[in-house]
Amino acid sequence: MSSFGKAFSSSIGKKVVMGITGLFLILFLIVHCFLNSLIFLNDGGETFNLGAEFMAGNWAIRAGEIVLFIGLILHIVQSARLTYDNQKARPVKYAAYNGSANSKWYSRSMGLLGTLLLIFLVVHLSNFWVVSRFTGIPTHDANNRENLYAVMVESFQNIWIVVLYVLSMISLCYHLLHGFASAFQTMGWNHKKYAPVIKSVGVWYSIIISVLFAAMPIAIYTGLIN
Amino acid sequence: MADINSNIPEGELTQKWTKYRSSVALVNPANKRSIEVIVVGSGLAGASAAATLAEMGYKVKCFCFQDSPRRAHSIAAQGGINAAKNYQNDGDSTYRLFYDTIKGGDYRAREANVYRLAEVSANIIDQCVAQGVPLAREYGGLLDNRSFGGTQVQRTFYAAGQTGQQLLLGAYSALERQIGMGKVEMYTRHEMLEVVKIDGKARGIIARNLITGELERHFGHAVLLASGGYGNVFYLSTNAMGSNVTAAWKAHRQGAFFANPCFTQIHPTCIPVSGDHQSKLTLMSESLRNDGRIWVPKKKDDNRKPTDIPEDERDYYLERRYPAFGNLVPRDVASRAAKERCDAGYGVGASKLAVYLDFAANTERYGRIEATKHGIQNADKATYMRLGREVVKEKYGNLFDMYAQITGEDPYETPMRIYPAVHYTMGGLWVDYNLMTTVPGLYALGEANFSDHGANRLGASALMQGLADGYFVIPYTIGAYLSKEISTKAIPTDHPAFVEAENSVKETLERFLTIKGSRSVDHFHKALGKIMWDKCGMARNEQGLTEAIAEIRALREEFWRDVRVPGSMDEYNPELEKAGRVADFLELGELMCIDALNRKESCGGHFREEYQTEEGEALRDDENFAYAAAWEYLEGVHFNLHKEELKFENIKVAQRSYK
Amino acid sequence: MNLTLKVWRQKNSKSAGKLVDYQVSDISPDMSFLEMFDVLNEQLINKGEEPIVFDHDCREGICGMCSMFINGRPHGPKQGITTCQLHMRSFKDGDTIVVEPWRAAAFPVIKDLATDRSSFDRIIAAGGFISVNTGNAQDANALPIPKSQADAAFEAAACIACGACVATCKNASAMLFVSAKISQLALLPQGQPERYRRVQSMVAQMDAEGFGNCTNTRACEAECPKGISLENIARMNRDYYAAKFVSEEEV
Asked: What sections of the protein cross the membrane (chain A) (predicted)?
């Protein structure tokens, strides 16, 4: 095996892939959340559609999208491999295991939370990404831009979609609560002076991102945004 | 008189080792590759010897009964390791360390060995630091020292309260390195059960694989025993549960003399016994005596809380009796003084078998220093105590936690209760200057031998001796023997001597299992321990020892008739292991009493009530007892005394005084 | 106190095991947990049954041999101690206590509660040392080491290799143990020459032993009787990346 092959197939090598892709997805979420939050301007989606057009028309963003998908797939595949390894590392389970005595439940449930997010992603991508990229957005707004905003408003009229989104954002929040600081730890960035900062930034990040995302379907469904 | 030869090199004391080292026969590298050495035990002495011999090129096999060489009981040593480095510029020197050790041992150790020990002590520190042992340092980045009982210089190197652990992990990592390189074959969870002798020389061992129960034969051109001390003969001691005399005792039965078995060290600062269920005693490092003051109430049966007893109603008896050394008198002196107070009715705690070790005075003193450092003036006592507590915590935090854990009391608030407990055994297999026993090719290292501590060991000297023997002594001295063995080919283990040895081990094991008596092994062990502690403990007398010998014989007879060992031979069976160990203790206990009875004097850890000064101090008899008592084992558990006369040519023998 | 114990009994590494119920009575709160087991074993021997095998030796929390998984936690309900330092005053009369061995593929059960932790030794043998033969050392004070660094190395070196980190980790990962040794030597100047070889060979051996991967739940740090910090794992990761992606030395 090549030197890098060996490095990436080691336990720490697998972790670093999780860490890097995780941090990349964290960055992506910031961009995604910022753009979507444009709906809160409540201008009938004008600015939001402008942003969407910019994202769609920019070749660098397009290229980034490919990287994003690769990152996402790596994150998922690698976590599946790690989970498999970890299961194998303890073939006989404990009759009594008191995990809550020493760790947070969500840090022990990243696989479960991640799986929920994966299910959500399938729904989410087919609702928006597939529509905007392949099947085409049916309407245009007053500025003759593709009206992605309208697609969004329409989707969130369905209470079940809204519920799914909100629950998924709760999953996301917990996934991030652990994932944020964990990625830094995996990358080796644990420093007595900075670790507390990373930790609190991570907590705030997780809460703000998830609350904003969850507020979108709720605001649309309840008509706060129209 | 001497029919045993200690092989001390001729010449000036200070030149003996240097000259010997430069002239001892060597084994060339090509021959080393075909010479096999067996090391039993993987503590400081065993691991350092196994690693060093493998580095030199010998083929080494190392055995330990624990699941990893790192678990040997050296790991539990807390306080520190002495070395004549004189880093503190307080007048320390090789000679002074030598002198302190001989005096501390109450003039019952061999001069040449002790001087060599003092000489190599400095190399040990260098070696350990190079291995990455994190010894305590000062802000300037250089090594820190503390003082220890029985000395007036600061020569003790330490790593918080875990010096033994750190030193052992250093030796263990050196050993593992050789294991990884394939130069040492490690046998964990193996117990040595017999020495195999061929033509009078030690040529191998029979070991039992403790997991499968299989008996294995191993050949070696030489066999090194580094199997530790025998303090567990008392059942309750600070030793680990598994510590035992079996390897040494098997060697003894094969002709290795056992020297000074009655020299046992009772450590003054242990946590008192809390009840019948007690399985072992926990030591509180002697380093605590640097900052703790020992006292009992002046009034008998004073049941007030210690913090309620005013200063002038406390008897700081060590400071009173020994103003020069105070709380830092050697262990034997401190232990006996505690026993004296308790026997006189001044003991504290529920059992009345304890004295106080009080940190309040020094906590306050440290607090005042801290306050000065931080520019705090005229603070109240509570502030000083709070500041001082931080300092104490930094120095002894883990020991205080340990105490709180075991007793449920907070030693920062209330004084510790302590009482002496069996800790170390100065006696052991008799060895000559080369560390060879009376069986050619059979060596004993570390606590397993008798050589360096005389009748009492000074604090922080056990680690020094273990590592000295393993790193710096045996690698040279073994050449004297092995250089003559280069033409000896490895003896196949189907040799009749191996077969016979294995059969005898098997018979013994089968015997344990077929008795099917009514009492557990622990029952006998506890009974033996009680006899030993009551009659061969801190104070001994002729009547008690005579009774003890009879009681032990009776107990041994009962053991072989009525012990119950469950399970079988061919499985992991800890009860069977224990049975073997207790059987050996039951013979050793008798020898200890015989030796104590024979030694009609008081010296170091051996205190005969009949022989004391008017002030109750030990009264030596240099005229008649300036010898090491080396006992030969005779068939049917009988013992024959040989004497090695001890000559003191470089030190003036005097009554040991710490006043 | 009277207690009900559910203890894992397993004849040897090849057979299957199960939890077996035992009753113990008149247990003193001052007893240690292992002394309570001594009492139980004495009872079993007197009844002609096989006593329970468990690992223990020093009984003062330093040898690292004792290793019981008590009510779902390694070394029981208290923090910062080993099983032998756990006292019965931490339990109540009438409690039911489940006692299991460490469970990990890399720690196979030998019998009852005793497991084989020799995988730890093999990891150390792979590189957990400084290659200095006896006699090679320079004067101990020739190399000043900042106190903070020496203290940090000491804290990492406090590990007793009991395996509680592996036992409690939901992934049975040994990274706390391995990183503690790597950190101790990486923090000291003496450890620098082999720093990047060491981390590669030790991690490779750790992987070969079949331990799981770290997912940063921090359970190991919380349960470690010696308070070994998770910072060590971060340091190991850093050194590993430097070794694999910067250093040219291949191990």
From this structure: 16-39, 59-77, 110-130, 159-181, 202-224
C95-111 pLDDT, tens digit each = 999 999 999 999 999 99
pLDDT given at position A56: 84
pLDDT for residue A225 = 86
pLDDT grade for B2, boundaries at 50, 70 and 90 = very low
How confident is the model at residue C183, as a pLDDT?
Answer: 98
Q: What is the pLDDT of residue B18?
A: 97
pLDDT tens for B611-621 read 999 888 899 99
Using a CB-CB cut-off of 8 Å, the residues of chain A touching C100 are 94-96
Q: Which residues pair with B563 in a beta bridge?
A: B519
Q: B141-168 pLDDT, tens per residue?
A: 999 998 887 788 999 999 988 999 999 9
Q: Confidence band (pLDDT; 50, 70, 90) for A105? A: very high
CATH number assigned to the domain with residue range C117-246, chosen from the 4 options 3.40.50.10420, 1.10.1060.10, 3.40.30.10, 1.10.10.10? 1.10.1060.10
Kind of pairing, strands B184-187 and B59-63? parallel
Closest CB to C213: pick one of A14, A92, A95.
A14
B382 touches chain C (CB under 8 A): no
Count of residues making up chain C: 251
Residue A120 sits in a domain whose CATH number is 1.20.1300.10
Split into its structural domains, chain B has a count of 2
Token code pair at residue B500: 């016979």
A98 contact C CB<8A = yes
> Which of the following is catalytic: B70, B146, B155, B331?
B331
* Residue B331 annotated among the catalytic residues of the structure: yes
Which candidate, B398, B279, B296, places its Cα nearest to that of B345? B296
Q: Label residue B286 by pLDDT band (50, 70, 90).
A: confident
> Among partner residues C53, C62, C137, which is closest to B75 by beta-carbon distance?
C62
Give the nearest chain C residue to B138 (CA atoms).
C147
> Distances in Å between the alpha carbon of B528 and those of B277, B355, C56?
16, 26, 22
| Residue B630, C-beta contacts closer than 8 angstroms, at least 6 positions apart | B4, B257, B258, B259, B430, B438, B641, B642, B643, B644
Cα-Cα-Cα-Cα torsion C211, C215, C217, C222, nearest 10 degrees, comes to 40
In a domain, A65, yes or no: yes
A residues 16-35 near C, CB within 8 Å? 16
Query: pLDDT tens digits, residue range C45-59?
Result: 999 999 999 999 999
If we measure between CA atoms, which residue out of C232, C211, C230, C202 comes closest to residue C167?
C211
Q: Is C234 in contact with A189 (Cβ distance < 8 A)?
A: yes
**Is ipTM strictly over 0.95?**
yes
The yes or no reply on domain C3-111 and CATH 3.10.20.30 is yes
Hey, are the CB atoms on C124 and B176 less than 8 Å from each other? Answer: yes
Q: What is the pTM of this model?
A: 0.96
Listed residue (C185, C194, C184, C183) closest to C238, CA to CA: C183
Confidence of residue C251 (pLDDT cuts 50, 70, 90): confident
CATH number of the domain to which B567 belongs? 1.20.58.100
- Chains near C, with 3+ CB pairs < 8 A? A, B
Residue B145 is predicted with a pLDDT of 94
**Containing domain of residue A187, as a range?**
3-88+107-221
For an interface test with C, which of A8, A18, A103 has the most C Cβ atoms less than 10 Å from its Cβ? A103
Q: Which strands make up the sheet holding C96-100, listed edge to edge?
A: C18-24, C3-9, C96-100, C69-70, C73-74
